[in-house]
């Protein structure tokens, strides 16, 4: 293969920060970016899982660090960004991935559940971006990838707070792309459908459904399967690499044709 073809997707020398990095899509993406040469920093509230996830990437030859971080806390986000810069010297890629879902409608949903959902996903995206962007500006640019959803583009049942948060994330992506394009910072959004993660299976439990039937229903889409973390990781890699160097303010649906 032509070495130039590999250069365009290489992340050698770059550093990626991934929230919600201890499991699911976050961990799958961390592994994929590390495979392409990036140093990866995993942020999560789950210390044991995060430590084990980072150790697994290191065992495969990757450069990695786990930092305990609650993205709802500005102090935690500021500290995590500071530790990353002290350890790696830079931040080139930010994947705002941390998320929760409460499967309830507006009548059933409690105020604290609304606050939790929007704080983790929408406020967390804002806080981490707020503290990372100055470092990207100083370095001359970077790539921010926000975690959206198919339900950022259309409504879904019994998920009013989740839909609100994901819709907000899609539009904050556009706003940040406008504000920071002049700094060489690209901001894009990945919008997955159902991905086989602990989060998806928690929805089944919340709805009181039988798991086999729930997962079978989730696979009812043109490509006839539930997605995997690797499916989303490949989309994040596209936005993180020079393959997308003239793409910003955009979203990429990764859902096997679910909303086609």
Strand content: 5-15%
Outline type: globular
Cα separation of the termini: 34 Å
Low-confidence stretches: none
N-to-C series of helices and strands: HEHEHEHEHEHEHHHE
CATH topology title: Rossmann fold
CATH superfamily: NAD(P)-binding Rossmann-like Domain
Q: Structural class, from secondary structure content?
A: alpha/beta
Say how many strands there are: 7
How would you sum up the major sheet? 7 strands, parallel
Q: Would you tell me the overall average pLDDT?
A: 96
Number of domains: 1
Total of DSSP H or I helical runs spanning 4+ residues:
9
Alpha-carbon Rg, integer: 18 Å
CATH architecture: 3-Layer(aba) Sandwich
Helix coverage percent:
40-55%
Report the CATH C-level class: Alpha Beta
Arrangement of strands in the largest sheet: 3-2-1-4-5-6-7
Write structural notes for this entry.
The protein is built from nine helices and seven strands. With 260 residues, the protein is an alpha/beta fold. It has one domain (12-195, 229-251): NAD(P)-binding Rossmann-like Domain (Rossmann fold, 3-Layer(aba) Sandwich).
């Amino acid at each position: 293969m032509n070495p130039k073809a590999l250069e365009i997707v290489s992340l050698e020398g770059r550093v990626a920060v991934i929230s919600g990095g201890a499991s699911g899509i976050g961990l799958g993406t961390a592994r994929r970016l590390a495979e392409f040469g990036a140093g990866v920093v995993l942020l999560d509230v789950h210390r044991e899982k995060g430590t084990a996830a980072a150790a697994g990437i290191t065992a495969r030859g990757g450069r990695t660090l786990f930092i305990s971080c609650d993205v709802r806390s500005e102090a935690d986000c500021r500290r995590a960004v500071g530790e990353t810069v002290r350890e790696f010297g830079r931040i080139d890629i930010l994947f705002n991935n941390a998320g929760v879902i409460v499967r309830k409608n507006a009548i059933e949903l409690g105020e604290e559940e609304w606050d939790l959902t929007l704080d983790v996903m929408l406020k967390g995206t804002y806080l981490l971006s707020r503290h990372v962007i100055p470092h990207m500006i100083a370095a001359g640019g970077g790539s921010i990838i926000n975690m959206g959803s198919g339900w950022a583009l259309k409504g879904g049942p019994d998920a009013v707070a989740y839909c609100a948060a994901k819709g907000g994330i899609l539009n904050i992506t556009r706003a940040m792309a406008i504000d920071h394009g002049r700094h060489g910072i690209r901001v894009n959004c990945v919008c997955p459908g159902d991905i086989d993660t602990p989060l998806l299976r928690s929805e089944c439990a919340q709805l009181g459904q039988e798991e086999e039937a729930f997962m079978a229903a989730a696979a009812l889409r043109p490509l006839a399967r539930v997605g995997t973390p690797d499916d989303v990781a490949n989309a994040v890699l596209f936005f993180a690499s020079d393959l997308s160097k003239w793409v910003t303010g955009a979203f990429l649906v990764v859902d096997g044709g679910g909303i086609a």
